[in-house]
Design goal:
The protein is α/β, with parallel strands linked by helices. 43% of the residues lie in helices and 14% in strands. The chain has a seven-stranded parallel β-sheet with strand order 3-2-1-4-5-6-7, with helices on both faces. Strand 4, helix 4 and strand 5 form a beta-alpha-beta unit. Helix 1 packs parallel to helix 2, helix 3 runs parallel beside helix 4 and helix 4 runs parallel beside helix 5. Bound molecules: NADP nicotinamide-adenine-dinucleotide phosphate.
């Protein structure tokens, strides 16, 4: 179902590339106002300019490292200043780094946790008062099938995505009676910069960013009474093992 996002504002963390970028493109195409963000100021400026070119919605860029709580607060305040409020927060920024416990440095663990878990906490806590004031809104957390299936080398990544699933469900219960819906989307492999070397032309079997964008847009089209709170999506035909 096509949805019109005119008059709606979304903040998408990690939206210069990959899944976040595809979601931003779909929202701007649907007339929404979207705050583009990542750690890399040059990429934020370039993506924002490209999206404003595409329209008909609007984009506004605010660089933000989600590991930094103060920067996350400024991201949300900047969105409210630019567009007058916030309706949708997509906690998408995330890293996948893989190492076995016997080889893992503390810095490696910290980076993974601070990006994939702390970042969601910082941005959500900053956004929630604005959403509560409106009495409606949606927080969409991009989890992973790695939030349900552990694998060797996944100690840190699995911890973040299992944690994110629990955090999302608890937030959903905290916020549902305020009119705020909270959803965890759990993708399998998506052809993005998440993997070394970036998107691979021969990886057509993987999900593509636009598949996740479609899922987010379909989700937003549900009537206020309905809350798909946990969604798994995977490639239909991965290579046979
Ligand atoms: N690709 C997959 O197979 C897959 C599967 C399941 C779940 N996911 C999840 O999907 C989400 C998006 O991943 P993706 O595949 O789209 O990866 P991607 O193509 O590498 O894009 C990641 C985005 O996040 C930004 N980012 C990274 N660290 C950040 C930080 N500390 N603060 C703010 N922005 C940051 C990146 O920009 P900068 O580096 O410039 O900051 C980039 O814009 C992640 O949460 C990931 O765990 C991915």
């Amino acid at each position: 179902m096509a949805i019109d996002l005119s008059g709606k504002t979304a903040v998408i963390t990690g939206s210069t590339k990959g899944i976040g970028r595809s979601v931003a493109e779909a929202m701007v195409a649907a007339g929404g106002s979207v705050v583009i963000s990542s750690r890399t100021a040059g990429d934020v400026a370039a993506a924002t300019a490209e999206l404003n070119e595409q329209g008909p919605g609007r984009a506004h860029g605010i660089p933000c490292d989600v590991r930094d709580g103060e920067a996350c607060a400024q991201l949300i305040e900047g969105a409210v200043e630019a567009f007058g409020g916030i309706d949708i927060l997509v906690n998408n920024a995330g890293l996948g780094r893989f190492a076995k416990i016997q080889e893992m440095e503390t810095e490696f663990w910290d980076t993974q946790i601070r990006t994939n878990l702390d970042g969601v906490f910082h941005c959500s806590r900053a956004a929630v008062p604005h959403l509560i004031r409106k009495g409606e809104g949606w927080i969409i957390n991009i989890g992973s099938l790695a939030g349900r299936n552990a694998f060797s080398g996944g100690v840190a990544y699995n911890a973040t995505k299992f944690g994110l699933l629990g955090m999302t469900e608890a937030m959903m219960l905290d916020l549902r009676h305020e009119g705020i819906r909270v959803t965890c989307i759990m993708p399998g492999s998506v052809n993005t910069h998440f993997f070394e070397g970036g998107p691979h032309p021969e990886h057509e079997w993987k999900l593509q960013g636009e598949d996740l964008a479609r899922l987010v847009m379909d989700l937003l089209a549900f009537p206020p009474r309905a809350l798909p709170s946990k969604i798994e999506i995977r490639p239909s035909q991965p290579p046979r093992k």
